[in-house]
């Protein structure tokens, strides 16, 4: 169950959404795109604004004009995203026609598809258009998905674990490709991942999620230089280090039941700094650094350690573990 997700993405900005598997990252983005199955999904309250319009207030036709044209998504499993019984061209063509919002000849559609495949560094695109997804490697399928997403020149690209199921070398190539293409198009991107290394090298700002809630937000350099939330600190300490020093013990405890989450802060059952108030009251957002209206520099955390009344860390800006 998502609770109080508050995110902002500025034009041309690269934003990371990080957290362990099952914390609600993909569900958040599917809700934003209005592709979350309902039922069983249900939106009780909230708004999702894109260019001043509330997407949740739109009907199906209105949202379809935005989805696939101005906002696109790369899903984490390219084999599931591509239909194995249709050729690449048969799946590429409807995307281009929908994005063009105009009549295109078959020749024009094919030319745009070839150009898109060339953009994602796939050799012999004319042959690939005739191929079925099962005839392509995992890296090639993911590049096809990237090409389909960016062929529409979207203003916002949502990339959901684009390196999943790929080996490390191909994953690095795919992430670099996405980075270069969105830079060229000045496209905003939300990168969903559980990899702190990917976040550190790729995005401008980071939102950290735990159990359906955002617990910390900061520019990437600030987050890695001074993680504030105990959960963020636990994630950082869980990353293996090349310098050695033993195996990390990870974060103690278990993820809460999302259908019946604990009262107060959802992390309090695992937190090494838990206080009485943590189990009774949900912490608000505390701004540690930055000013209203700033694009860069704002560092926010949802933890009572940074409340002057309850936590000494509010005056120091630091927590030691």
Number of helices: 12
Radius of gyration: 21 Å
According to DSSP, the number of beta strands is 10
- Helix residue percentage: 25-40%
Largest sheet: 8 strands, mixed
Low-confidence stretches: 312-321
Q: What structural class do you assign from the helix and strand content?
A: alpha/beta
Q: From N to C, what is the helix and strand string?
A: EHEEHEHHHHHEHEHEEHHEEH
Query: What is the straight-line distance between the termini?
Result: 29 Å
CATH T-level topology of the largest domain: Rossmann fold
Task: Describe the structure concisely.
With 321 residues, the protein is of the alpha/beta class.
Descriptive tags:
321 residues, alpha/beta, Rossmann fold, 2 domains, two-stranded antiparallel sheet, 34% helix, disordered C terminus
Description:
This protein is α/β, with parallel strands linked by helices and 321 residues long. It has 2 domains: 15-203, Rossmann fold (3-Layer(aba) Sandwich), CATH 3.40.50; 215-321, no CATH class. It is 34% helix and 14% strand. The strands form 2 sheets. Strands 4-5-6-1-7-8-10-9 form an 8-stranded mixed β-sheet, sandwiched between helices. It has a two-stranded antiparallel ribbon with strand order 2-3. The longest helix has 18 residues, at 168-185. The two termini are 29 Å apart.
Produce the secondary structure layout.
Blueprint: E1 14-18, H1 25-33, E2 49-50, E3 53-54, H2 60-66, E4 71-74, H3 78-81, H4 88-100, H5 106-119, H6 125-129, H7 138-150, E5 156-160, H8 168-185, E6 188-193, H9 196-202, E7 205-210, E8 213-219, H10 220-225, H11 230-238, E9 286-289, E10 299-301, H12 313-316
């Amino acid at each position: 169950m998502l609770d109080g997700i508050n995110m902002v993405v500025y034009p041309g900005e690269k934003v990371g959404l990080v957290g362990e598997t099952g914390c609600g990252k993909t569900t958040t983005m599917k809700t934003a795109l209005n592709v979350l199955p309902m039922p069983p999904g249900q939106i009780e309250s909230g708004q999702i604004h894109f260019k001043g319009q509330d997407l949740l207030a739109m009907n199906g036709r209105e949202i379809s004009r935005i989805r696939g044209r101005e906002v696109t998504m790369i899903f984490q499993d390219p084999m599931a995203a591509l239909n194995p019984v249709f050729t690449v061209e048969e799946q590429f063509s409807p995307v281009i026609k929908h994005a063009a919002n105009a009549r295109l000849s078959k020749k024009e559609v094919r030319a745009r598809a070839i150009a898109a495949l060339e953009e994602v560094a796939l050799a012999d695109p004319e042959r690939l258009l005739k191929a079925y997804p099962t005839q392509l490697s995992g890296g090639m399928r993911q590049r096809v998905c990237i090409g389909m997403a960016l062929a529409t020149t979207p203003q916002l690209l949502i990339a959901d674990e684009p390196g999943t199921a790929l080996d490390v070398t191909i994953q690095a190539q795919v992430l670099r490709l996405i980075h270069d293409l969105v830079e060229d198009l000045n496209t905003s991107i939300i990168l969903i991942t559980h990899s702190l290394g990917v976040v550190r090298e790729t995005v401008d700002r980071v939102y950290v999620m735990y159990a359906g809630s955002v617990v910390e937000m900061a520019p990437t350099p600030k987050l890695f230089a001074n993680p504030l939330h105990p959960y963020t600190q636990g994630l950082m300490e869980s990353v293996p280090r090349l310098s050695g020093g033993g195996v990390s013990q990870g974060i103690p405890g278990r993820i809460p039941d999302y259908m019946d989450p604990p009262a107060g802060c959802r992390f309090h059952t695992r937190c090494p700094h838990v206080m009485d108030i943590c189990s009774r009251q949900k912490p608000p957002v505390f701004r540690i650094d930055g000013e209203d209206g700033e694009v860069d520099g704002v560092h926010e955390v949802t933890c009572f350690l940074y409340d002057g009344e309850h936590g000494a860390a509010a005056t120091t800006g630091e927590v030691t573990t």
